[in-house]
From TrEMBL, chain A:
Major localisation: membrane
Any matching Pfam family: BPD_transp_1
Protein name in the entry: Glycine/betaine ABC transporter permease
Gene Ontology process terms (BP): glycine betaine transport; transmembrane transport
Automatic annotation (TrEMBL), chain B:
Residues covered by the ABC transporter domain: 2-237
Taxonomic superkingdom: Bacteria
The organism's taxonomic lineage, starting at the top: Bacteria, Bacillati, Actinomycetota, Actinomycetes, Kitasatosporales
Pfam families reported for this sequence: ABC_tran
Protein name (record): ABC-type quaternary amine transporter
Protein source organism: Streptomyces sulfonofaciens
GO MF annotations, alphabetized: ABC-type quaternary ammonium compound transporting activity; ATP binding; ATP hydrolysis activity
Amino acid sequence: MIAALGRIPAQGGQSPPGLLGYFSAHRTEVLHWLWWHAWLSVLPVLIGLVVSLPLGYLASRRRWAYPALVSVSGLLYTIPSLALFVAMPSILGTKILDPVNVVVALSIYTVALLARVVADGLGAVPEDVAQAATAMGYTPLQRLAKVDLPLAVPVITAGLRVAVVANVSLVAIAATIGVPELGQLFTNGFQLSSTGPYYPPIVLGIVLCVVLALVLDLVIVLVNRALTPWRRTEAHR
Amino acid sequence: MIVFESVTKRYPGGTVAVDHLDLEAPKGRITVLVGPSGCGKTTSLRMVNRMVEPTSGRVLIDGADTAASPPAALRRGIGYVIQHSGLLPHRTVLDNIATVPLLLGTDRRRARSRAMELLERVGLTPALAKRYPAQLSGGQQQRVGVARALAADPPVMLMDEPFSAVDPVVREQLQNEFLRLQEELGKTIVFVTHDIDEAIKLGDRIAVLRVGGRLAQVASPAELLARPVDAFVAAFVGRDRGYRALGFAAVSSLPFEREETVRLGEALATARDRLNGGWVLVVDAEDRPQGWLSEDGARLAAQETVTEDALNLGGTLATEDGSLRELLDAALSSPSGRGVVTDGEGRLLGSISPSTAVRLIEERSSAPAGAPGTGEEA
């Protein structure tokens, strides 16, 4: 594919346009897809995080809840994403083309991944720190908000990075059910290849997906750094 | 005052951690809970601030049943220090110290200025205020832990082996400063340790617990050393308790002898003239003992005057108003066989021989019970 990428501009005018040519010809819709792709990747992570916090908290506090959470989330992850997208309308009563289907399905995957991460993060607060916080008079909720959660931030953001990158790739599959996002480029590339291989839309889709994933990942890394100033000092004590 | 009234902690499954504990921790004093592991000392401590709830019995603080107050409110009124400091890793030193005042609703500025005061009070430089706990040494972390426990000025403090995770030199510093602080503050303290030496050094009262959570003996340190109530306590207190008990026997009117001295910088010839039994004591310009010079040392010295590097530093010093233990140790450790006694400022008063020290000990043994040094009951 890289070799093809190099060859395309050389083919010039009479052949179909190369990567950049394809992009400038379809600029508006590609940017529209990129925007939707980003939105469909991020929104489920945010929803998933909000749902995962109470579930993870429960699992870190109740001995029976943790194994249950691990089994259920493992099971959820084995459902093929396409099947989930297709099943959503009958569960939610939405139309088949409604992007809500994708958001809900990906939120489920995110919860499956993050709830366990949150439980692990909250469970990894050092015992003496937890004891001391309780002994100083934090109520259980205050302790969660001001001690346990801040200390679990590095673990949770590590999970968020995996979730957001996984979502970028899962969103692309939703093109097969007609949701507008970068996956459309793969569908187009496939359709345009009926007479002979035509790679520019496919390569463009891959490049934009990778760039999007890297940018979102970087955002999470920066947020993590901003929330955990104490960890930067440990290296040079 | 903290009172345990027939307090029992039985865990599901039948393990009894604390068995009908009756104990009083008097106001303004340090009460030490000591015993082997599994004796329920930490469990007992934690029942005071309801980190552990008693199965039966009551814990009272100044007459009020602790079970009557909500746990979080109760705990904000009780200082708590643990072995590995338990500092919040994501908060600066200053914010760690200010934790309880902030929980109590003190405004941030007042809480921080109070925290700053305490930082200095526990012997730390203000430069550490903005650091995170991971940037401090173990000893510094423990000091911050003590400052944090003191921040809201609670009348009661619970301390769970606070000094046992630091090296022996730092531990001794921390213990001494803790005693100095306590002298100023007069908190009601319950202190848990497995180390009988620490218990004897710090405790006004010592409660020895045995495995299974039963109280074996409560006594002052001196009484515990002199009259252990049974074989378990005797074994726990240790073999050299007779010698250690001398640490609580104060010395009065010492019959010391005059000791010839030579100053640092005086001629070696002068030193040789003043040798007594092969040794002469060397002092500085303020008459503070610096060490002993031997006949050989005086002969082999490189310079013509008395210098520090020719001195034998083997002997310990006893102070005039110190303990018999200090005196006997000074006499036994001195290379010349004469124990050096100084006044409170470290200036030489005279010397004492081991036989005189032993005579003082004998006189003490034959004195009636209740002699000086039996501790807080006096």
